Amino acid sequence: MLTFKGSRSSWSVGVEVVDNVDDEFEGPWYAQRIQDLSLEGWVVDSIEAYLEEDIELASERIVYVDFAVDLAQELLERTGYLGESVNLRSMEQSDVWEQELRDPMNAERVLEEYSAWAKEWRPWELELNRGLIAWRDAEMEEDYASYLARFDALDASSLPSARILAPLLSEPEETEEIHRVLSGLEEDERRQRTAISNAAEMLADAGFNVGHVEKMSIIEGLDWITQLHEFHDVHEELRLLILEQIGVFDPGLAQHHEARRRELLRENSHPELRNFRLQMDSIADNLHQRLARLNDLLNEWRERGIVFPHGDSVRPPELLEWETNLPEIEATLELHLQALSRWETITHAWQDESSSGAQYAGVLEQTEQFIDHVDHLDQKWKQYELEALMFVEKYEQMGLAMGDWSDEIQRDPRGAVQQLKKNQHRFDIRFECIEKLASIDTSFEGKMEIEARIELLKEMDVDLEILEHTKELIEKMARRGARHRRMLEQDWRQLVTEGKAQDSLATSSLSLAEFESEIGHVRRFGTSSSASRTGGSIVAGEVHQRLIRRTQQELAVLQSAGWNVHQLLIDVEDNPVDVAQKLNAFRTYIETYSRQSRRLKHLPWHRDVALALEVQQQLRDPTQLNSIFGSIASFAQHLASRKSEDGKFVFDAWTPQPIRQTLVPVPEHTALQTMVPKDALGDAYEAILEAMEDKTSEEGEQGEEEAMSDSAPVQPASDEEHNSDASEDSESIEQEAEVVTPVAELSATDVQATTEKIAERPIVKHESRIENPSAELAVKVEPKSSDSPVPLGVYKNIVQFLHAINLDDYADDMELNGGDSLPNVRRGLAKHVGVTPRDTRVDRMLRLALRLLPQNNEFDEKKSELLALMAGNLKTMQRWMRSRLEHRHSGSGDHFLEDARQLGVALKRIPGPGYPVPLSADDYDLPNANDIKALESEVKQLIDHLNLPTAGGIKA
What we know:
Blueprint: E1 2-6, E2 11-15, H1 31-40, H2 45-52, H3 58-79, H4 88-100, H5 107-121, H6 123-130, H7 132-137, H8 141-152, H9 159-165, H10 175-205, H11 218-246, H12 251-263, H13 270-303, H14 319-349, H15 367-397, H16 404-411, H17 413-422, H18 424-438, H19 447-459, H20 464-497, H21 512-525, H22 536-539, H23 541-560, H24 566-574, H25 576-591, H26 593-601, H27 609-618, H28 625-630, H29 632-640, H30 680-708, H31 719-735, H32 748-759, H33 773-780, H34 792-804, H35 808-817, H36 822-830, H37 840-852, H38 860-872, H39 874-887, H40 896-909, H41 932-946
Antiparallel strand pairs: 1-2
Helix pairs in contact: 2-3, 3-5, 5-6, 10-11, 11-12, 11-13, 14-15, 15-16, 15-17, 16-17, 18-19, 18-20, 19-34, 19-38, 20-21, 23-24, 23-25, 24-25, 26-31, 30-32, 31-36, 31-37, 34-35, 34-38, 37-38, 37-41, 38-41, 39-40
């Protein structure tokens, strides 16, 4: 039996004896050959098929079969080992060829495939095989086998060089050249593998897992070493990052992360290494940002004056220690900064004190000494401040406006004391002039001028020229008053002679206005206003008829004006005393009808149209005026609780026809000095004044006798109505701020119509009837009007108040234009009245301020002082509002009224502890604008409420 033995590189055929084999075979003659090939291990199926195709040519085909067997045997030897340069796919192809070559009929096809493959991957074998006969002839079979083995041992990287050398391998005579080139290739490979081995050893020493790099090809080894070097570079960057960016801050933290980095050396994982790098960058950035913030904070403190032991920035190793001690440092630094701010304020005013304490300023280690030094300076500051305030209070009690000194005292109390002492004599002169001006009787005329001059002296630190002019004014007004009283005394003596007046009346105790009113009363009713209204002496005989006639005449005048007095005219015949009492009762309401009707007109009547129509009808009945005017507050409360019924409804208050005036004295001047109008409404007022002046001049030229001879008895008007109207204007503006019409909205036609209408009306002076002693007292305390300009001191106090509530535009307007700016100021204050939600104290202050604005009477100076007093007490409340806003996370805008509004909204949203602050509009019934004592009491109460005592550190 034939057996096939050997490996891919060597084959051997052995013969074994097989028992019981017949010598003769059945079948074709070549069957024995096929059996032998089968026994050798060849696949013979294709051979048998090939031979059986044509039996006649079998002998020839058997020769081809032997050729194929030899070729297959040769290819098995040649493809048994393909060398080190082949890739894995080629190794798999070698196994395929081995299986295919077991069938000799595949030998030629495999030869073609192998030749094509060898040209690319094993060109030296083709060349050596082609020159095999030459190598055998040269008896160099060993060299042949050696060169083949050496070429097969080359790495794939040497394949290009080997391909160049391949053409020489078929010529044995080129042995030396072949040996030289091949040795060079082998030496290059040894050098490259040595470099790979050295790099692998270095990386292994660094902790990297190099794997089986020695078993890899040169290219694979180099790629693997390159990849490991990239890992090494990343790890080295990480090592330096941990050492330089983290280790300088915290060495312990750096050691911990370095240990983590070493653990990643063995893994060679890109994702984990990338995540670790991001973590290290984040930690380093955080540490550097903390260091930068700390240095910024130190630089900010340095800019505020703090001196640190070192002038440079905090270094990285010091960061954690600084952060640990920072809360304690901030607490000490806050105390030092407060003291430093106070020291800078004091030394800015007192330059001589700047050298003392400078060695402590800004040095944290000297905080206690610095605070003691600042407390000493602050004590001196407060002593001077107290002395200055006592000086100011003295002259404020004397009536002078000293509000401007408050800022100076706060800025530099020592300098303020020196200036106050220097100007003390001027304050005394001003007070003396004020006393003399106040003693002048201005009840009939000159009241505004005198009051303006008094206010000027109170509010302004005037020069000698104004003081001289004031003395001249005092002499002029005293002379005119004395002349007027002499004329009235002559008229009174004439009435006494006629038996109409009582000689027992002490006329010297009457003011000029009261004297005029008394003479007018006697001429009208034939008796003194102080006579009893009851008893038979009034209603008996001719007196009874005269009472009826006088009452009828007065009712006729009212009827001609449009009043509904028809029933009273009927009743006067039967009961004149009762009608006269009713007439006396509603006379006051008739005199104040224009003022009260304005208050009614501004109510929201569109919310109850039926009530509005009823009130309109009752207004013509003078007996109903008491009920209507006394119900204005209830009307307002009733209308405020109702919704609108007819938004287009307009309340049209009935207006009586004007009454021709009498008993108007001829003015001593013929030209009325007015200020230059500032707008269209100012032009209207100017035209009104000129028309009134012309009318007054014409009537004055006719003389007092013509006025006395008028057949229709009319009622002299008192100054009370004008003064009351003026005071009522402020109330009307305050209560009805929403209906104030800006001057800019008035058209030229409206202004002209208003001017013509008012200019055509004669001025009527109504008589003030005194029913009882209390009423007489009320008449005597009425303010005295004056034609004199308002003192500049009044405007100065108003400016101070406007600055205190941050209405600086109106304050500047008043400083520039004086009295011309009063309407703008009134409107500016009025539009802030009634704002809700807001502290009710602010609303009360604004309402009082409207009543305290000047009205050109004797109370202007005192009222302006009250304004200045309120202004001086607003800073405490402003600080309180700022603190409350900050506690509610709202910043203060340092604008009093805006801060008050914002705080009202904040308190409504977040109420404070304890008793809640009232946030509704102020509806308290304030006194009349001329009730100076009541206004002063209200101002003091308001100041007490503005400066409430603390309870547990919390202000209400």
